[in-house]
Write a structure and sequence with these properties.
This protein has helices at 61-74, 103-111, 124-136, 158-168, 185-194, 208-220, 323-326, 331-354, 358-375, 378-394, 400-414; strands spanning 5-11, 15-17, 23-33, 44-51, 81-87, 91-95, 144-151, 173-179, 199-202, 222-233, 238-246, 250-251, 262-271, 276-284, 290-302, 308-320. The protein is an alpha/beta fold. It has 2 domains: 1-327, von Willebrand factor, type A domain (Rossmann fold), CATH 3.40.50.410; 332-414, Four Helix Bundle (Hemerythrin (Met), subunit A). A 6-stranded mixed sheet has the order 6-5-4-7-8-9, sandwiched between helices. A 5-stranded antiparallel sheet has the order 1-3-14-11-12, with helices on one face. α4 (158-168) links the parallel β7 and β8 (173-179).
């Protein structure tokens, strides 16, 4: 029987300069699920959390939510478990997993969502807690246990939301959807990233049904569960930075490496054909010429309905005194290095702009724009160009138009672009 996934460790260069005191090497650790994994489609255990605060009536947001949930109801299978929670100042479970067996009951309940007496504020933690309680009633390693949160506003008690994720992340993942420009994107991003869920920015409320559909399709295509990369570094090797590299780009932080030289990175569930990867920036010590293993890596995963399995691979490089060899680059790795660098530039530009350093922010965005042009990433180029124009006009992020273009740029730049082999050839040229 063929392995249900591929797992590999790729270095930016197969050669390391022996005499270099701090040689920087980029390492891509990537797992790709091949297909259904032999376990078939994984049944859902989904808790949907809907913001029904007063602002959800703006731009027909609530109407589009109703349409999206009806789509969800029509596409549930008999073995799926779904609950729906509405929240404002209070939270109320409007559909339990038992009631969700009747699709018409879901539609009736969602049609009456605006009649609920739950106030008009935004207490997202209350909604999350209620959905978590419902999901836990059917919690199972053989199900996809996820909470899906949709909001359009700033919530009270943000710390409570983070605490809920931290306490439940081993069992439940969280996907978040931010509508409009008033929500806290940093909070929604953290909620999803910390639990290996997905974050969606919805600029136009009319996109809500399509985003729900994309989320559902993603859940349907999960073929491997609870992916985790464990890395053992060779003596003297250090981690300078670590990034999630696909399907989205975000920083993982720099871990403390203990005496056992081990570090771990959660990948979460894998959709068939969608890479789950981590990009490491390593600093290598000088060594004598010759072959050296710099790390061992193991990918832990579960096939739905089965026990945990592992696949391992080592990474060996050739220490050499020949500088011409060290200039040769792996195109796949360097492409992702460039994409990560662009995401870092965009994030730094946002920080500078919030600090009032408009000129600095403009230069950083200009550099990021040049990078997306060189990569041929048309969508990211257009998004960054729009953001740059808005900043030049307004000198701030406070206007609705500027905030919208910022959120659009964030979403596009963070999404990893997969290039075909021909497009990677330029990255294999010597520096």
């Amino acid at each position: 029987m063929a392995d249900p996934l591929s797992f590999e460790a790729l270095a930016s260069s197969e050669h390391v300069l022996s005499s270099a005191e701090n040689f920087v090497l980029y390492v891509l650790l990537e797992a790709v699920a091949r297909g259904a994994g032999g376990g078939g489609r994984v049944p859902l255990n989904l808790g949907v959390v809907i913001d029904r605060s007063g602002s959800m009536y703006d731009e027909r947001r609530l109407e589009f939510v109703v349409e999206a949930v009806k789509f969800l109801a029509d596409n549930l299978s008999a073995d799926d478990k779904v609950s729906i929670v509405a929240f404002a100042d209070k939270a109320k479970v409007i559909i339990t997993p038992e009631a969700a067996r009747d699709k018409s009951a879901i539609k009736r309940a969602i049609d009456d969502i605006d009649l609920l007496e739950i106030g008009g504020g935004t207490q997202m933690a209350l909604g999350m807690r209620a959905a978590i309680d419902e999901v836990k009633k059917n919690l199972s390693p053989d199900r996809l246990n996820r909470v899906l949160v949709l909001t359009d506003g700033q919530t009270y008690e943000e710390t409570a939301c983070i605490d809920l994720v931290e306490k439940n992340r081993e069992q439940i993942s969280f996907s978040t959807m931010g509508v409009g420009v008033e929500f806290n994107e940093k909070l929604l991003q953290r909620v999803s990233q910390d639990s290996n869920g997905k974050y969606h920015f919805i600029g136009d409320p009319a996109e809500i049904p399509n985003i729900f559909e994309d989320e559902l399709q993603g859940l349907r295509s999960v073929s491997l569960r609870n992916g985790r990369i464990e890395v053992t570094l060779s003596q003297g090797v250090q981690v300078r930075e670590a990034f999630r590299a696909s399907p989205e780009i975000y920083m993982l932080g720099t871990p403390l490496v203990g005496e056992d030289r081990k570090i771990g990175y959660e990948i979460g569930d894998l959709q068939a054909g969608v890479p789950g990867s981590v990009l490491l920036t390593l600093v290598l010590p000088p060594r004598k010429p010759g072959q050296v293993r710099i790390l061992q890596s193991t990918f832990h995963y579960e096939v739905p309905g089965g026990a945990e399995s592992t696949v391992a691979c080592d990474l060996t490089v050739d220490y050499t005194l020949d500088r011409t060899l060290t200039s040769k680059r792996n195109g796949r790795v360097m492409n992702l290095v460039d994409q990560v660098s662009i995401a870092k530039l965009q994030a730094k530009a946002e920080e500078e702009l919030k600090a009032g350093n408009v000129d600095r922010a403009t230069r950083l965005l200009g550099n990021a724009l040049q990078g997306t042009q060189r990569l041929g990433n048309v969508k990211a180029t257009q998004a960054l160009a729009g953001l740059l124009d808005q900043i030049k006009k307004t000198q701030t992020l406070q206007t609705k138009a500027a905030k919208t273009t910022l959120l659009q740029a964030q979403a596009v730049v963070r999404k990893t672009q997969m290039l075909d082999p021909e497009a990677l050839k330029d990255f294999q040229k010597s520096d």
